[in-house]
Amino acid sequence: MTRFPSRSWRRLGGAVLLAAACQCALAAPDARIAALAAQQKQPLLDSLSQLVGIESGSRDLEGLAKIADLIAGKLKAMGGEVELVDTTAHAYRMEDTPEQIGRAVRATFKGAGTKKIMLIAHMDTVYQRGMLEKQPFRIEGDKAYGLGIADDKQGIAVILHTVALLKALQFNDYGTLTVLINGDEEISSPGSRALITKLGSEHDAVLSFEGASIKEDKLSLATAGIASVTLNVTGKASHAGSAPEAGVNALYELSHQILQMRDLSDPATGLKMNWTIAKAGTNRNVIPATASAGADVRVLKVSDYDRIEQQVNERIKKQLVPQAKVEMRFERRRPPLEANAASRAMASHAQAIYKELDRPLGADAVAAGGGTDAAFAALQAKGAVVERFGLQGFGAHSADAEYVLIDSIEPRLYLAARLIMDISRGQVGGM
After folding, report:
1. 12: burial class by Cβ within 10 Å (0-12, 13-18, 19+)?
2. Alpha-carbon distance 240 to 255, whole Å?
3. Were both Cys, which of 52, 81, 223, 352 would link to 146 (CB 3.0–4.6 Å)?
4. Which among 382, 354, 403 is positioned nearest to 153, based on CA atoms?
5. Distance (Å, whole) CA 142 – CA 198
6. What distance, in Å, lies between the first and last C-alpha atoms of the chain?
7. How far apart are CA 292 and CA 278, in angstroms?
8. Hey, which residues does 121 pair with through a beta bridge?
9. Is residue 238 within 8 Å of 227, Cβ to Cβ?
10. How far apart are CA 127 and CA 155, in angstroms?
């Protein structure tokens, strides 16, 4: 039996294994796919070097344009119908949304079948221009290092070389294979969220290629939704010593608002609302005329957004200082990813494929960590949406320790290719 170098006994932590629900018979690995996955290993590392070698922060339009052109060129060379999509015009505007947003790369491969499958990743990073010079791409042992390599340039590389593997097999039993790489994920996808949601609703399956952890080799069927609440209070300045009664203390009103909304978290549903930042006033001896505060909100169900927003709107009507003006802004930065039956079936099938390689694969339906674009893809989708098909990695958003595990390349390429093939042939239950 052909096997990849295995990390099969890695601790799975709290992952929920779904493989027992799959009725698929276990088999030896497909020798052709395994061999092609091995052949794609070095080319994938070469692609990673190219991708990491382009600085592409979410607000770096020049870098985003350069990396988008590189990705578009690779997809076009493999026969894709490629479009660079301007996502700025219809962006969802949040407090930190830049005026101009980098373009997304969309590639379409037409096949002979009926199933529509989409692969997504993002090209933007959290890093500032100039950091690459001191931290270029490098390989040390089983680790490939680089800024943005785990989040999410590995995802782009895995998608590119999964498509290359399918091309080498001359496989086209899918109806449509869509690749979408956006450039605004790290700023909550203000420009691309509508496109991702639309395309997600039009496909039978969406595979999202954020990376897996080095500790827990697993897929994710659920992620938390992220929102923010901003309160701005306007009062009136006055001398704090000689005429405090002539002022309207914005800090008093802000403090009242924060305290009366300290109990809106709901452990029973996983809803969390925590006030995290606040500021007020200009000088010690001046009654503050302005004050503001921000809260972080996490939800596990889309419907909880409506509930918490309504609760905040009701609470702010109860003022301590009637003369103060209180304004609230509620931003839905990301919806939660909620597991459905199709997603569970696809994850279960993926676990069976990984067993062919003698490797356990977790599939966790418990939301943890940050949100991802998979949630936008699932927002109106009836089909399967599953996250973390990318390489195992570590150090996302860190300044000096971000890497991926090289020995996860072959199994992840094998998994993605086999799963696309099985979905295309109608061999995944519930799809």
Report:
1. middle
2. 18
3. 52
4. 403
5. 39
6. 30
7. 6
8. 181
9. no
10. 17
Q: How confident is the model at residue 26 (pLDDT cuts 50, 70, 90)?
A: low
Q: Are strands 205-208 and 176-182 parallel, antiparallel or unpaired?
A: unpaired
Asked if 278 and 293 touch (Cβ cutoff 8 Å), the reply is: yes
Q: Which two tokens stand for residue 303?
A: 């419907």
In the predicted model, is pLDDT for residue 3 greater than 50? no
Q: How confident is the model at residue 369 (pLDDT cuts 50, 70, 90)?
A: low
- Going by pLDDT thresholds of 50, 70 and 90, the confidence category of residue 368 is low
Cα separations (Å) of 146 from 51, 119, 138? 10, 23, 7
Name residue 286's beta-bridge partners: 239
Query: Which residues are annotated as catalytic?
Result: 124, 185
pLDDT 10s digits, 114-124 = 999 999 999 99
Q: pLDDT value at position 134?
A: 86
CB 385, CB 208: distance < 8 Å: yes
Can you read off the two tokens belonging to residue 212? 């897996």
134 contacts: CB under 8 Å, gap ≥ 6: none
Beta carbons within 10 angstroms of residue 28's beta carbon: 12
Cis geometry, peptide bond prior to residue 204 (ω within 30 degrees of 0): no
- DSSP conformation class of 150: I
The secondary structure of residue 80, as a DSSP letter, is -
For residue 332, pLDDT beyond 60: yes
Whether the Cβ atoms of residue 359 and residue 102 lie closer than 8 Å to each other: no
Residue range 298-317: mean pLDDT, rounded: 95
Please state, for a pLDDT cut of 90, what percent of the chain lies above it: 88
Q: Which residues contact 62 (CB under 8 A, 6 or more apart)?
A: none
Token pair for residue 429? Answer: 């239950």
C-alpha to C-alpha distance for 118 and 141, rounded to whole angstroms? 33
